[in-house]
Structure formats: C-alpha cells, structure tokens
Amino acid sequence: MTEKEYDDGKCGNIISYKCTKNSVVSFVLSLIPIVNILRHYKFKEYLLRDVVSGLSTACLHFPQGMAFGILSSLAPKYGLYTSFYPVIMYVIFGTCPYVSFGTNAVIALFTANLVQSHVLPPGSGGSNTTNNSILSEVVNYNNFLEAKVALAAGSSLIVGVLLLILGLLRLGFISSYMSSPFVGSFTTTAAIHIITSQIPKAIGVEIPLISGPGKLVITYVEIFKNISSANVGSIVTSMICIIILVFVKDFINEKFKLKLYMPIPIELILVICGTVVSYFGKLNSTFDIPIVGSIESGLSPPTLPTLKSDIIGDSIMIAIIVFVLTISMAKVCETKSVINTDQELVAYGMANLGGAFFQCFPSCVAPPRTILLKTMETKTTLNGIFSAVIILLVLLFLGEYFQYLPLPILSIMIIIAIKNLLLQFRQLPRLWRINKYDFIVWVATLVAGVFIDFPYALYCGVGLSIFIIVYQSQRAKVSLFGKLKNEDLYVEECKRTTLPSNTKIFKMESSLFFATAESFREDLYKLAWDPRKMTKDPEEVTFQVASGKTPSSNDLQIKEENDFIESKYVIIDCSAFNYVDSTGMAVLSLVVKEYRHAGIKVLLVRCTTYLLSLMARSELLETVGKE
Question: What is the pLDDT of residues 471-492, one digit of tens each?
Fold first, then answer.
C-alpha cells in the first residue's frame, strides 16, 4: 500500500476486509457465545453461583409465568412455556449473565391487546367491540383459546425475525438513541396500564373488553360503575397478599439483604400456601373466589404459528419495546464490561423465533428477575439452565397441583412486582432542575400513554425526542473567541480577552448539516461582519485551510505588516464539525465567496480529518484554493 493509499484509507475513502477461513469461523462462533463460555468455564469459581442464582430466579419464573400467562389473556401454561423455551435459547445465544429472559408484564399486556383486537370471543356475532375498526374473526368456543395462542405465537415469530435481522446487520448502536427519561416514562406508563388491567381481577369485578384511545379512563369508569358487585373474598385475599408481599420484599429482604444469602422467595411461598388454603378451604365454591383452573401437564408440541398482515404493525412495536427494555436493564446491571448490543439483538431474535414454534407469546427481560441475578452475583448465562429445569419439572409433573391457586394472588403479585416502576415519578424534580427538555419528554410520554393509549406513549416519546434534537441542533451555541491577556490561550470573548480589531474568531458547537447550516451563516454574519452589507471587491483574497491550532496574534501581526493594505480576517474554528452534509458544504462555500467579495480573508482552523477528506472530495477546495 502506497503512502497515498494509506492516507486515503485514513480519510475513509477505502475500506478493505479480507475474508478468510479463520474470520468466518470466528464470526460464526461469535453468534453462539455459549461455545466460548463452556470452553473457559471455571467450575470451582462459577458453578455454585450459577446454580444458586438460577434456582432463585426459577422461584420468580414460575409464579410470574402463570401470572403473565393470564395477563396476556391466554392461560397460565402458555406463560410457563414462555418461561422455558426462550430461556434455553438465550442461554445459547445471549451474552449478559444478568438478563433473565422469559415473560414480561409489559409484553404480556401488549400481547393481550393484540389478540383481543383480532380474535373475538364466541357469541359476539362478529361485531367489533373495539374503538378502532379492526379486521377480526369469530371462532367457536372450543377453538377460541387456540386461535389466540397461534396469533400470539405469530407475533413472536415476527418479533424474532425483526430482531434477528437487526442483530445480523449490526444495528445495535441504535440503543444509544433511547434516552433514560423516555425509557423511565415509558416503563412508568406501562406499569400504570398493567396495574389497571389487574385491579378488576384483584377485587372480583367484571368489566367489558375495552381497547383503543382513552381505554384507561374508560376502564376506571367501568370499575367504579360496577364496584358494588365486587367480590368480598377477592378483596380480602388481595389485601392479605399485599401486606405479606410488601412486608417481606420491602422490609425483611431489603433490611437484611446483607445477612441473607438469597432473598426470601416470597412469591413462590405465597403461591404454594395460597393453593393449599384454597384447596382445603374451598375458596372457589364457598366464597366464589376465581381460581386458575386446570393446568395441563406436558410440553407443547412444535406447531406453526398464525401469521397475518394485520399484526405486523403491533409486532414491530413489541419488537422495539423488547429491545429497549432488555438493553436498558442489561446496561443497568452490567457495569463492569460493555454490552455487545449486536449479539444481544441476535439472542433476543432467536429466543422469540424459537419460542414461536412452541406456543410462546413474545418474550422479554423482567426487571425483578434481572435485579435478583445481579444481587446473587451470577457468573454466566448458564444460570438459565437451572431455572429452565425447575420450569420443566412444573410443566411435566407439578402443574396440575396449582389449579386451585386464587387469581387475586397472581394479580397482586403482578402489581407488587412492578410497583417500583411507579416510583420513577421521583425523577421529575431532578429532571426539572437539570434539563427541562427531559422533563417535557417524560411528562408528555406519560400523558399520551395514559390518556390516549399505551402505543401513543412510544409515538409521542420518540417523536418528541427527535423534535428536541432537531430543535437543539438549530440552537447550537455560537461564540467569538479572543486571546487572554498575557497568555497564549483562546477562550470566549470577555473583558480579559483581546484580539486585533480586524480579526474575528468564530465557533459553532455543532455539526454542520441541513438543520444548522442556515443558522451557522446568519450567526456568523451577526457576530463577525455581514459581507452582504459591504461593497469592497478585491481582485484576489486568499483562503487558507489549516488542521492545526488557531494562529497566534503575533503571526497575524507579521502577516498584516507584510500586506500593502490592512485585511480583515474571519477565522472559523471547525473542531466541532464532526459531520458535514452537502447542504453544510454549500453554505460553507457560500460564506467564503461572500466574504471574498467583501475583501475579507477566511481561514478554517482545527479542521477534523473527516472535514479535510470531505473537502478533498468536493468542489469546495478547488473553489477557495489551498495554501
């Protein structure tokens, strides 16, 4: 490679890759991280931690799987399937040991909205009970649940394919564009919707199916309209569960977390005790408290999911939420090393893609389980194997013993599991003090999600974030610089700076592209000189490009003494021009020409390598010349 080719390569003009056998093998192995984990697994150091953390997580997987299976409007066993198959897939393809893949309350809620919008219960006569006109099908009662399951699995297939493609294309960097205020507000909105969906089950109130814009408000109206029909047994059961869960999780586990080897699995204990009390106390027949019902033993056979064009839009939204929530939790927990977001996308895609053929609905990380793995200091993703073994035992042998579990217990477990998401409201005072734009994004996302519908929280949050980025880029900070007296240091102009009257040093702290180009020109003319109001037209004015530091005042003085006439100088600091598009180049060229027409010399200093290479490829350098 010649010196010129090397320089061109540094400027980004050439990129070369060699495809060898070793590089292909390395790429394939990078897609299956479990191979590398097994090769370097330290049994004495890792095994005990992985076993204990995996078994502890299973204590949450089991009750949450049943609870979120009901939340998804399917059945408990499908929640258990989603707590088994995707977990195995993530062990094979995942990289973060703290990610506990499986059921998630937010994704379960989205799944419920999807299947309820496209599969109507028998007896509806084909009428649409939703606020939106959506193509739906009415099936007989025997196939009603199977139709919903197949459609949910179809959504999981679409989610898996989309995430897998994003991972293979190495687009994991898009996670950096999800701001923490948006994620916080979005998950808070999700928590409000989830809690609202569980309140009727917790108090034993039956309300009609509601979906579409304004459904949250309408749901509470229906709850209060039917509050007189609330089941006293369900209310008492719910109150007892709240007291027990809050006392153990927030008092005992939190206060004695340094003394306890692992947190008390109160969810599992509550499920077992609730089932025993319900069976011997005959809570269903005596107090009319609803129970889980029959849970079939065995694993789901491989089946083809149902694919419809109508669910693609909802599935894309679910895929985005899976990516945002899981990457956010992984980054929160994994603080010692960098998350491989590209491979994580592959893992999320394979987990949903594989689970789709075993009657699983879309899967995602769950914050309670992930935080537990972080607390237990698990070492590798192999902890998921031990969680999956417990779920397998439940599916094969133990599931039928939990058919008497009261539904209010599962509803309260869901509410308590996500209550910490509601506490994110405490971020608001801090956001207001630090950055009011983040505060606006947080509040607007919440308001849109609560008073319109949950998907609108995503639309509003992302849209408003993009708008603020554009708005802020057009209001980039601009300033003139001067030299500090008695020091060779250039700072923003103030009383302690000095500069020859015929020189202006200008800097804009932003990239130069279509959104900032015009404001760059106007601000430059406002702070320096406006050539449009000047008439001098010299025969030739030199334009200089420099990649070094700003020239000193002594250099300028020598230059002035050698000139027959005194010239004016505009020095543009280009150090912030990390990106320049065609519009920016055109405006930069126009600025040079207009200043040249007015007899003012222009110097570009501290040019980035990117800008220099771009100028070499464009007409700008030929137009203005180079010394």
Answer: 877 777 888 888 887 777 777 7
Joined together, the tokens standing for residue 600 give 């003012």
> How far apart, in whole angstroms, are the C-alpha atoms of residue 333 and residue 354?
26
Mean pLDDT of 141-159: 87
Please give the residue that has the higher pLDDT: either 561 or 348. Answer: 348
pLDDT at 141 over 60: no
DSSP-based three-state secondary structure for 52:
helix
How far, rounded to the nearest angstrom, does the alpha carbon of residue 600 sit from its chain's CA centroid? Answer: 49
- The pair of structure tokens assigned to 566 is 């005194």
pLDDT tens-digit map of 502-540: 888 898 888 888 888 888 899 899 988 888 887 654 444
The average pLDDT across 253-262 equals 80
φ/ψ bin of 194: left (φ > 0), alpha (ψ from -120 to 50), beta (otherwise): alpha
**Residue 227 to residue 244: CA distance in whole angstroms:** 25
Exposed, middle or buried, 494 (CB in 10 Å: 0-12/13-18/19+)? Answer: exposed
Task: Give the list of residues 6+ apart from residue 136 with CB closer than 8 angstroms, or none.
Answer: 117, 118, 119, 120, 126, 128, 130
Q: How far is CA 86 from CA 92, 117, 238, in A?
A: 10, 25, 31
The CA distance from 111 to 153, in Å, is 10
Instruction: List strand residue ranges (DSSP E) for 511-575, in order.
Output: 544-545, 568-573
Closest CA to 155 of 343, 295, 24, 305: 305
Q: How many angstroms separate the CA atoms of 16 and 29, rounded?
A: 22
Q: CA 141 to CA 159: how far, in whole Å?
A: 28
pLDDT score of 553: 52
Asked whether the predicted pLDDT for residue 291 surpasses 70, the reply is yes
Which tokens go with 472?
């802020």
Share of the chain above pLDDT 70, in %: 85
Q: Where does the pLDDT of residue 232 fall: very low under 50, low under 70, confident under 90, or very high at 90 and above?
A: very high
Q: Output the CA angle 21-26-32, nearest 5 degrees.
A: 135
Q: Give the end-to-end CA distance of the chain in Å, rounded to a whole number.
A: 27
Kindly report, residue by residue over 181-193, the tens digit of the pLDDT.
887 888 788 888 8
Instruction: List, in order, residues 6 or more apart from 405 with CB less than 8 Å away.
Output: 66, 271, 274, 275, 278, 291, 292
What secondary structure does DSSP assign to 262-319, as a single string?
Answer: S---HHHHHHHHHHHHHHHHTHHHHH---B------SPPPP-PPP--GGGHHHHHHHH
d(CA 2, CA 6): 6
Q: Return the closest-CA partner of residue 602 out of 560, 572, 575.
A: 572
- Identify the pLDDT of residue 450: 92
